[in-house]
Write a structure and sequence with these properties.
It is a single chain. With 466 residues, the protein is an alpha/beta fold. It has 3 domains: 15-138, no CATH class; 146-244, NAD(P)-binding Rossmann-like Domain (Rossmann fold), CATH 3.40.50.720; 270-459, no CATH class. 51% of the residues lie in helices and 11% in strands. The strands form 4 sheets. The chain has a 5-stranded parallel beta sheet, sandwiched between helices.
Length: 466
Protein backbone atom coordinates (compact mmCIF):
# COMPACT_ATOMS: atom_id res chain seq x y z
CA UNK A 1 0.00 0.00 0.00
CA UNK A 2 1.35 3.42 -0.98
CA UNK A 3 1.05 6.33 1.42
CA UNK A 4 0.29 9.68 -0.21
CA UNK A 5 0.47 12.96 1.69
CA UNK A 6 -2.06 14.48 -0.67
CA UNK A 7 -4.95 12.01 -0.86
CA UNK A 8 -7.09 12.46 -3.97
CA UNK A 9 -10.17 13.57 -2.12
CA UNK A 10 -8.42 16.46 -0.39
CA UNK A 11 -7.59 19.96 -1.58
CA UNK A 12 -5.52 22.74 0.00
CA UNK A 13 -8.47 24.96 0.88
CA UNK A 14 -7.52 25.83 4.48
CA UNK A 15 -6.70 29.19 6.05
CA UNK A 16 -3.19 29.16 4.54
CA UNK A 17 -4.63 28.89 1.04
CA UNK A 18 -7.00 31.82 1.52
CA UNK A 19 -4.41 34.09 3.15
CA UNK A 20 -1.91 33.56 0.36
CA UNK A 21 -4.62 33.74 -2.29
CA UNK A 22 -6.02 37.06 -0.98
CA UNK A 23 -2.54 38.61 -0.88
CA UNK A 24 -1.64 37.30 -4.34
CA UNK A 25 -4.88 38.40 -6.02
CA UNK A 26 -4.67 41.82 -4.38
CA UNK A 27 -1.22 42.23 -5.88
CA UNK A 28 -2.35 40.92 -9.29
CA UNK A 29 -5.43 43.18 -9.45
CA UNK A 30 -3.41 46.14 -8.18
CA UNK A 31 -0.72 45.52 -10.80
CA UNK A 32 -3.31 45.41 -13.59
CA UNK A 33 -4.81 48.68 -12.36
CA UNK A 34 -1.38 50.34 -12.17
CA UNK A 35 -0.34 49.23 -15.65
CA UNK A 36 -3.66 50.37 -17.10
CA UNK A 37 -3.41 53.76 -15.37
CA UNK A 38 0.16 54.27 -16.64
CA UNK A 39 -0.99 53.43 -20.17
CA UNK A 40 -4.35 55.23 -20.36
CA UNK A 41 -4.53 57.47 -17.29
CA UNK A 42 -7.52 55.56 -15.91
CA UNK A 43 -8.63 52.06 -14.84
CA UNK A 44 -11.08 51.36 -17.64
CA UNK A 45 -14.15 49.13 -17.26
CA UNK A 46 -12.91 46.25 -19.42
CA UNK A 47 -9.78 45.94 -17.27
CA UNK A 48 -11.89 45.90 -14.10
CA UNK A 49 -13.92 43.06 -15.60
CA UNK A 50 -10.68 41.25 -16.47
CA UNK A 51 -9.48 41.64 -12.87
CA UNK A 52 -12.74 40.17 -11.52
CA UNK A 53 -12.65 37.22 -13.93
CA UNK A 54 -8.98 36.58 -13.08
CA UNK A 55 -9.73 36.57 -9.35
CA UNK A 56 -12.68 34.17 -9.75
CA UNK A 57 -10.79 31.91 -12.16
CA UNK A 58 -7.74 31.73 -9.93
CA UNK A 59 -9.58 29.69 -7.30
CA UNK A 60 -10.14 26.53 -9.43
CA UNK A 61 -6.84 27.05 -11.30
CA UNK A 62 -4.69 27.42 -8.18
CA UNK A 63 -6.59 24.69 -6.33
CA UNK A 64 -6.12 22.22 -9.19
CA UNK A 65 -2.35 22.76 -9.23
CA UNK A 66 -2.17 22.87 -5.38
CA UNK A 67 -0.35 26.19 -5.45
CA UNK A 68 -0.63 26.92 -1.75
CA UNK A 69 -0.32 23.40 -0.35
CA UNK A 70 1.27 24.00 3.05
CA UNK A 71 2.15 20.30 3.43
CA UNK A 72 4.85 20.57 0.79
CA UNK A 73 8.10 21.93 2.12
CA UNK A 74 10.25 23.20 -0.75
CA UNK A 75 10.09 26.87 -1.74
CA UNK A 76 11.33 26.05 -5.25
CA UNK A 77 8.61 23.46 -5.86
CA UNK A 78 6.12 25.98 -4.47
CA UNK A 79 7.29 28.60 -6.96
CA UNK A 80 6.99 26.05 -9.78
CA UNK A 81 3.42 25.23 -8.72
CA UNK A 82 2.70 28.96 -8.56
CA UNK A 83 4.03 29.32 -12.11
CA UNK A 84 1.89 26.37 -13.23
CA UNK A 85 -1.21 27.88 -11.63
CA UNK A 86 -0.54 31.30 -13.16
CA UNK A 87 0.00 29.81 -16.64
CA UNK A 88 -3.18 27.76 -16.26
CA UNK A 89 -5.10 30.90 -15.27
CA UNK A 90 -3.70 32.81 -18.25
CA UNK A 91 -4.68 29.92 -20.54
CA UNK A 92 -8.23 29.99 -19.17
CA UNK A 93 -8.42 33.76 -19.69
CA UNK A 94 -7.14 33.35 -23.26
CA UNK A 95 -9.85 30.80 -24.00
CA UNK A 96 -12.52 33.13 -22.58
CA UNK A 97 -11.18 36.04 -24.67
CA UNK A 98 -11.16 33.85 -27.79
CA UNK A 99 -14.71 32.58 -27.26
CA UNK A 100 -16.12 36.05 -26.46
CA UNK A 101 -14.03 37.80 -29.15
CA UNK A 102 -12.98 40.53 -26.69
CA UNK A 103 -9.19 40.36 -27.04
CA UNK A 104 -9.14 43.49 -29.23
CA UNK A 105 -10.53 45.53 -26.33
CA UNK A 106 -7.26 45.27 -24.43
CA UNK A 107 -3.81 46.73 -24.92
CA UNK A 108 -1.35 43.97 -25.83
CA UNK A 109 1.41 45.92 -24.08
CA UNK A 110 -0.56 46.02 -20.83
CA UNK A 111 -1.49 42.34 -21.03
CA UNK A 112 2.07 41.23 -21.83
CA UNK A 113 3.54 43.21 -18.92
CA UNK A 114 0.77 41.96 -16.63
CA UNK A 115 1.41 38.34 -17.62
CA UNK A 116 5.16 38.61 -16.90
CA UNK A 117 5.11 40.90 -13.85
CA UNK A 118 2.05 39.20 -12.39
CA UNK A 119 4.04 36.09 -11.59
CA UNK A 120 6.93 38.11 -10.13
CA UNK A 121 4.75 40.08 -7.69
CA UNK A 122 3.08 36.86 -6.58
CA UNK A 123 6.45 35.17 -6.10
CA UNK A 124 7.70 38.09 -3.96
CA UNK A 125 4.73 37.75 -1.59
CA UNK A 126 4.65 33.95 -1.78
CA UNK A 127 8.12 33.30 -0.34
CA UNK A 128 7.78 35.01 3.09
CA UNK A 129 4.23 33.76 3.65
CA UNK A 130 5.20 30.25 2.59
CA UNK A 131 8.17 30.28 4.98
CA UNK A 132 6.03 31.51 7.89
CA UNK A 133 3.46 28.81 7.10
CA UNK A 134 6.17 26.16 6.93
CA UNK A 135 7.61 27.19 10.31
CA UNK A 136 4.13 27.30 11.88
CA UNK A 137 3.20 23.81 10.67
CA UNK A 138 6.60 22.46 11.67
CA UNK A 139 6.09 23.68 15.24
CA UNK A 140 2.68 22.04 15.31
CA UNK A 141 4.21 18.76 14.14
CA UNK A 142 6.97 18.96 16.76
CA UNK A 143 4.31 19.01 19.46
CA UNK A 144 2.72 15.87 18.01
CA UNK A 145 5.25 13.20 18.94
CA UNK A 146 4.22 9.84 17.53
CA UNK A 147 4.73 6.13 18.03
CA UNK A 148 3.80 3.22 15.74
CA UNK A 149 2.25 -0.01 16.97
CA UNK A 150 3.56 -2.74 14.67
CA UNK A 151 6.88 -4.04 13.43
CA UNK A 152 6.01 -5.32 9.96
CA UNK A 153 6.80 -3.98 6.47
CA UNK A 154 3.80 -1.64 6.68
CA UNK A 155 5.05 -0.15 9.96
CA UNK A 156 8.52 0.39 8.47
CA UNK A 157 7.06 2.09 5.39
CA UNK A 158 4.81 4.27 7.53
CA UNK A 159 7.79 5.27 9.68
CA UNK A 160 9.72 6.30 6.54
CA UNK A 161 6.80 8.46 5.41
CA UNK A 162 6.38 10.13 8.80
CA UNK A 163 10.09 10.90 9.17
CA UNK A 164 11.16 11.69 5.60
CA UNK A 165 8.03 13.21 4.07
CA UNK A 166 5.79 14.53 6.84
CA UNK A 167 8.71 15.39 9.16
CA UNK A 168 6.79 14.22 12.22
CA UNK A 169 8.83 13.42 15.34
CA UNK A 170 8.73 9.64 15.70
CA UNK A 171 9.75 8.15 19.04
CA UNK A 172 9.89 4.61 17.67
CA UNK A 173 7.94 1.37 17.20
CA UNK A 174 6.01 -0.80 19.63
CA UNK A 175 5.63 -4.52 18.89
CA UNK A 176 2.84 -6.92 19.70
CA UNK A 177 5.24 -9.40 21.26
CA UNK A 178 8.04 -9.07 23.77
CA UNK A 179 11.32 -7.69 22.39
CA UNK A 180 14.97 -8.44 23.10
CA UNK A 181 17.87 -6.04 23.24
CA UNK A 182 19.32 -7.43 19.99
CA UNK A 183 16.12 -6.65 18.07
CA UNK A 184 16.10 -3.10 19.37
CA UNK A 185 19.62 -2.51 18.04
CA UNK A 186 19.15 -3.96 14.55
CA UNK A 187 15.94 -2.16 13.51
CA UNK A 188 15.89 1.05 11.44
CA UNK A 189 13.81 2.70 14.16
CA UNK A 190 13.98 2.18 17.92
CA UNK A 191 11.84 -0.56 19.39
CA UNK A 192 10.42 0.97 22.55
CA UNK A 193 8.77 -2.16 23.93
CA UNK A 194 5.66 -4.26 23.43
CA UNK A 195 1.97 -3.54 23.52
CA UNK A 196 1.73 -4.39 27.24
CA UNK A 197 4.03 -1.42 27.95
CA UNK A 198 2.16 0.98 25.64
CA UNK A 199 0.55 3.11 28.37
CA UNK A 200 3.91 3.52 30.10
CA UNK A 201 5.62 4.43 26.80
CA UNK A 202 2.96 7.05 26.02
CA UNK A 203 3.38 8.68 29.42
CA UNK A 204 7.20 8.60 29.53
CA UNK A 205 7.77 9.69 25.90
CA UNK A 206 5.05 12.36 25.84
CA UNK A 207 3.31 10.67 22.92
CA UNK A 208 0.43 12.60 21.35
CA UNK A 209 -0.35 10.33 18.38
CA UNK A 210 -0.46 6.53 18.08
CA UNK A 211 -0.41 4.93 14.63
CA UNK A 212 -1.67 1.35 14.52
CA UNK A 213 -0.09 -0.51 11.58
CA UNK A 214 -1.77 -3.88 11.94
CA UNK A 215 -3.69 -6.11 9.48
CA UNK A 216 -7.43 -6.83 9.55
CA UNK A 217 -6.72 -10.14 11.27
CA UNK A 218 -5.88 -8.15 14.42
CA UNK A 219 -9.23 -6.35 14.41
CA UNK A 220 -10.33 -7.61 17.82
CA UNK A 221 -7.06 -6.57 19.42
CA UNK A 222 -7.29 -3.14 17.74
CA UNK A 223 -10.80 -2.68 19.13
CA UNK A 224 -9.73 -3.62 22.68
CA UNK A 225 -6.73 -1.31 22.43
CA UNK A 226 -8.84 1.58 21.17
CA UNK A 227 -11.31 1.25 24.05
CA UNK A 228 -8.48 0.96 26.54
CA UNK A 229 -6.88 4.21 25.35
CA UNK A 230 -10.03 6.34 25.38
CA UNK A 231 -9.00 7.81 28.73
CA UNK A 232 -5.49 8.69 27.48
CA UNK A 233 -4.72 12.03 25.79
CA UNK A 234 -3.47 10.52 22.55
CA UNK A 235 -4.80 10.53 18.99
CA UNK A 236 -5.24 7.01 17.60
CA UNK A 237 -4.89 6.47 13.84
CA UNK A 238 -5.32 3.05 12.25
CA UNK A 239 -3.41 2.38 9.02
CA UNK A 240 -4.94 -0.88 7.68
CA UNK A 241 -2.56 -3.25 5.90
CA UNK A 242 -3.96 -3.46 2.36
CA UNK A 243 -0.71 -4.35 0.62
CA UNK A 244 -2.17 -7.43 -1.04
CA UNK A 245 -4.82 -5.40 -2.89
CA UNK A 246 -4.34 -3.52 -6.17
CA UNK A 247 -5.94 -0.15 -5.46
CA UNK A 248 -6.66 2.77 -7.76
CA UNK A 249 -7.07 6.36 -6.63
CA UNK A 250 -7.55 5.17 -3.04
CA UNK A 251 -8.89 7.62 -0.49
CA UNK A 252 -10.81 7.81 2.77
CA UNK A 253 -14.03 9.74 3.23
CA UNK A 254 -17.23 9.83 5.25
CA UNK A 255 -20.63 8.79 3.89
CA UNK A 256 -23.44 9.95 6.14
CA UNK A 257 -21.11 9.81 9.13
CA UNK A 258 -19.88 6.31 8.22
CA UNK A 259 -16.16 5.92 7.45
CA UNK A 260 -15.50 4.76 3.88
CA UNK A 261 -12.25 3.45 2.37
CA UNK A 262 -12.32 3.90 -1.39
CA UNK A 263 -10.26 1.01 -2.77
CA UNK A 264 -11.02 1.57 -6.43
CA UNK A 265 -12.44 4.84 -7.74
CA UNK A 266 -12.29 6.67 -11.05
CA UNK A 267 -10.34 9.94 -10.57
CA UNK A 268 -12.61 11.84 -12.97
CA UNK A 269 -15.73 11.01 -10.95
CA UNK A 270 -14.16 11.41 -7.50
CA UNK A 271 -12.72 14.86 -8.27
CA UNK A 272 -15.18 16.63 -10.59
CA UNK A 273 -13.61 20.06 -10.08
CA UNK A 274 -10.17 18.83 -11.08
CA UNK A 275 -11.68 16.82 -13.94
CA UNK A 276 -13.34 19.98 -15.25
CA UNK A 277 -10.03 21.83 -15.18
CA UNK A 278 -8.35 18.87 -16.92
CA UNK A 279 -10.99 18.84 -19.67
CA UNK A 280 -10.78 22.61 -20.14
CA UNK A 281 -6.99 22.48 -20.27
CA UNK A 282 -7.07 19.55 -22.71
CA UNK A 283 -9.39 21.18 -25.21
CA UNK A 284 -7.89 24.66 -25.04
CA UNK A 285 -4.34 23.38 -25.57
CA UNK A 286 -5.51 20.96 -28.29
CA UNK A 287 -7.28 23.77 -30.17
CA UNK A 288 -4.25 26.05 -29.85
CA UNK A 289 -1.89 23.25 -30.96
CA UNK A 290 -4.04 22.45 -34.02
CA UNK A 291 -3.95 26.10 -35.10
CA UNK A 292 -0.20 26.50 -34.53
CA UNK A 293 0.71 23.14 -36.09
CA UNK A 294 -1.67 23.39 -39.05
CA UNK A 295 1.19 23.91 -41.58
CA UNK A 296 2.93 20.77 -40.27
CA UNK A 297 -0.33 18.80 -40.30
CA UNK A 298 -1.06 19.79 -43.91
CA UNK A 299 2.51 19.06 -45.07
CA UNK A 300 2.48 15.65 -43.37
CA UNK A 301 -0.87 14.81 -44.95
CA UNK A 302 0.55 15.50 -48.44
CA UNK A 303 3.70 13.48 -47.68
CA UNK A 304 1.69 10.48 -46.47
CA UNK A 305 -0.58 10.63 -49.52
CA UNK A 306 2.40 10.69 -51.89
CA UNK A 307 4.34 7.95 -50.03
CA UNK A 308 1.99 5.09 -50.91
CA UNK A 309 -1.61 4.48 -52.01
CA UNK A 310 -4.22 4.67 -49.30
CA UNK A 311 -5.93 7.10 -46.92
CA UNK A 312 -4.00 9.85 -45.11
CA UNK A 313 -5.43 8.96 -41.71
CA UNK A 314 -5.43 5.59 -40.02
CA UNK A 315 -8.41 5.18 -37.72
CA UNK A 316 -8.27 2.25 -35.33
CA UNK A 317 -10.81 1.13 -32.75
CA UNK A 318 -9.40 1.22 -29.24
CA UNK A 319 -10.78 1.27 -25.72
CA UNK A 320 -11.37 4.68 -24.19
CA UNK A 321 -12.71 5.90 -20.87
CA UNK A 322 -14.56 3.15 -18.94
CA UNK A 323 -13.89 0.69 -21.78
CA UNK A 324 -15.94 2.56 -24.38
CA UNK A 325 -14.72 1.83 -27.91
CA UNK A 326 -13.41 4.93 -29.70
CA UNK A 327 -11.65 5.55 -33.02
CA UNK A 328 -8.12 6.87 -32.51
CA UNK A 329 -6.68 8.94 -35.35
CA UNK A 330 -3.09 8.71 -36.61
CA UNK A 331 -1.30 9.61 -39.79
CA UNK A 332 -0.95 6.39 -41.78
CA UNK A 333 2.66 5.20 -41.50
CA UNK A 334 2.29 1.76 -43.10
CA UNK A 335 1.36 0.48 -46.51
CA UNK A 336 -2.25 -0.63 -46.80
CA UNK A 337 -2.33 -4.32 -45.90
CA UNK A 338 -4.65 -7.00 -44.56
CA UNK A 339 -3.61 -8.79 -41.36
CA UNK A 340 -5.49 -11.74 -39.95
CA UNK A 341 -4.57 -10.39 -36.52
CA UNK A 342 -3.39 -7.05 -35.19
CA UNK A 343 0.39 -7.05 -34.94
CA UNK A 344 2.49 -4.45 -33.15
CA UNK A 345 5.03 -2.54 -35.21
CA UNK A 346 8.59 -3.78 -34.74
CA UNK A 347 12.02 -2.42 -35.53
CA UNK A 348 12.71 -2.62 -39.29
CA UNK A 349 9.06 -3.55 -39.90
CA UNK A 350 8.68 -3.95 -43.71
CA UNK A 351 5.12 -2.59 -43.59
CA UNK A 352 6.34 0.90 -42.58
CA UNK A 353 6.93 3.40 -45.40
CA UNK A 354 9.91 5.77 -45.56
CA UNK A 355 7.71 8.72 -44.61
CA UNK A 356 6.03 6.56 -41.99
CA UNK A 357 9.35 5.70 -40.37
CA UNK A 358 10.19 9.39 -39.99
CA UNK A 359 6.82 10.48 -38.61
CA UNK A 360 6.78 7.51 -36.19
CA UNK A 361 10.26 8.31 -34.88
CA UNK A 362 9.34 11.98 -34.39
CA UNK A 363 5.82 11.09 -33.12
CA UNK A 364 4.30 13.34 -35.80
CA UNK A 365 2.01 10.43 -36.66
CA UNK A 366 0.26 10.94 -33.30
CA UNK A 367 -0.66 14.61 -33.93
CA UNK A 368 -4.14 13.88 -35.41
CA UNK A 369 -5.07 12.66 -31.93
CA UNK A 370 -5.31 16.36 -31.02
CA UNK A 371 -8.70 16.15 -32.75
CA UNK A 372 -9.58 13.15 -30.55
CA UNK A 373 -8.78 15.38 -27.56
CA UNK A 374 -10.82 18.24 -29.00
CA UNK A 375 -13.80 15.90 -29.51
CA UNK A 376 -13.51 14.66 -25.91
CA UNK A 377 -12.57 11.04 -26.67
CA UNK A 378 -9.00 11.39 -25.39
CA UNK A 379 -6.92 13.53 -23.08
CA UNK A 380 -3.52 15.11 -23.61
CA UNK A 381 -2.15 12.96 -20.78
CA UNK A 382 -3.25 9.46 -19.83
CA UNK A 383 -2.54 5.79 -20.50
CA UNK A 384 -1.84 5.19 -24.19
CA UNK A 385 -4.77 3.39 -25.87
CA UNK A 386 -3.99 -0.09 -27.18
CA UNK A 387 -5.63 -2.02 -30.00
CA UNK A 388 -8.66 -4.08 -28.95
CA UNK A 389 -6.88 -7.33 -29.82
CA UNK A 390 -3.95 -6.41 -27.58
CA UNK A 391 -6.31 -5.65 -24.70
CA UNK A 392 -8.00 -9.03 -25.15
CA UNK A 393 -4.59 -10.74 -25.14
CA UNK A 394 -3.17 -9.04 -22.04
CA UNK A 395 -6.39 -8.78 -19.98
CA UNK A 396 -6.00 -12.23 -18.37
CA UNK A 397 -2.19 -12.17 -18.26
CA UNK A 398 -1.50 -8.95 -16.33
CA UNK A 399 -3.23 -8.13 -13.03
CA UNK A 400 -5.53 -5.08 -13.25
CA UNK A 401 -4.62 -4.56 -16.92
CA UNK A 402 -8.09 -3.30 -17.89
CA UNK A 403 -8.05 -0.83 -14.98
CA UNK A 404 -6.02 1.43 -17.29
CA UNK A 405 -9.36 2.43 -18.81
CA UNK A 406 -10.66 4.05 -15.62
CA UNK A 407 -9.43 7.36 -17.05
CA UNK A 408 -9.35 8.84 -20.55
CA UNK A 409 -6.48 7.59 -22.74
CA UNK A 410 -3.85 10.16 -23.61
CA UNK A 411 -1.53 11.25 -26.41
CA UNK A 412 1.31 11.01 -23.91
CA UNK A 413 1.58 9.55 -20.42
CA UNK A 414 3.72 8.70 -17.44
CA UNK A 415 4.84 5.43 -19.07
CA UNK A 416 6.00 7.26 -22.20
CA UNK A 417 8.20 9.79 -20.39
CA UNK A 418 9.54 7.02 -18.12
CA UNK A 419 10.93 4.92 -20.96
CA UNK A 420 8.15 2.30 -21.12
CA UNK A 421 7.28 2.94 -24.77
CA UNK A 422 7.85 1.23 -28.08
CA UNK A 423 7.37 -2.47 -28.77
CA UNK A 424 6.23 -4.64 -25.86
CA UNK A 425 7.43 -8.03 -27.11
CA UNK A 426 7.37 -9.57 -23.63
CA UNK A 427 4.73 -9.73 -20.90
CA UNK A 428 7.17 -8.07 -18.48
CA UNK A 429 7.51 -4.99 -20.69
CA UNK A 430 3.77 -4.55 -20.96
CA UNK A 431 3.40 -5.15 -17.21
CA UNK A 432 5.90 -2.35 -16.58
CA UNK A 433 3.89 0.00 -18.79
CA UNK A 434 0.70 -0.95 -16.94
CA UNK A 435 2.45 -0.31 -13.62
CA UNK A 436 3.20 3.27 -14.70
CA UNK A 437 -0.36 3.72 -15.96
CA UNK A 438 -1.88 2.58 -12.67
CA UNK A 439 0.52 4.78 -10.71
CA UNK A 440 -0.62 7.74 -12.84
CA UNK A 441 -4.29 6.96 -12.18
CA UNK A 442 -3.73 6.61 -8.43
CA UNK A 443 -1.77 9.87 -8.19
CA UNK A 444 -3.48 11.93 -10.89
CA UNK A 445 -3.53 15.71 -10.60
CA UNK A 446 -3.48 18.64 -13.00
CA UNK A 447 0.04 19.45 -11.81
CA UNK A 448 1.17 15.92 -12.71
CA UNK A 449 -0.33 16.40 -16.18
CA UNK A 450 1.61 19.64 -16.62
CA UNK A 451 4.88 17.98 -15.59
CA UNK A 452 4.31 15.10 -18.03
CA UNK A 453 3.55 17.53 -20.86
CA UNK A 454 6.74 19.47 -20.13
CA UNK A 455 8.83 16.28 -20.11
CA UNK A 456 7.25 14.75 -23.23
CA UNK A 457 9.46 16.57 -25.80
CA UNK A 458 12.57 15.10 -24.13
CA UNK A 459 11.13 11.59 -24.41
CA UNK A 460 10.75 11.92 -28.20
CA UNK A 461 14.49 11.29 -28.67
CA UNK A 462 14.06 7.76 -27.33
CA UNK A 463 15.71 5.08 -29.45
CA UNK A 464 12.71 2.79 -28.85
CA UNK A 465 10.41 4.78 -31.15
CA UNK A 466 9.89 3.21 -34.57
Amino acid sequence: MMFDNHAPAQHPRGITFWIQWVVAMTMVAGLLGLLTWLKTGTFETQYRILAVIAILGSVPAYTAVRVYDSRREGSFSGLMRLLGGWLLLLSMLSVVAFLTKTSDNYSREVLLKWAMLGYLVQAVTFLPIHELSRVYHQRLREKRKAVILGNNALAQQLADVLVNQRFEPLAGLVTLERTTGDEAETESYPLLGNVEQLRQIIAEQGIRRLYIALPFSEMKRIERLYIDLLDVSVDVVWIPDLASLVMLNQSVSSIGGLPAIHLNECPLSSRPRGAFVKAALDRSIALLAIVLLSPLLIATAFAVKLSSPGPVLFKQQRHGWNGEVIKVWKFRSMRVHQDAQVKQATREDPRITAVGRFIRRTSIDELPQLFNVLFGDMSLVGPRPHALAHNDYYADKITAYMARHRIKPGITGLAQISGARGETETIDKMAKRVEFDLHYISNWSVWLDIKILLKTPLSLVSKDIY
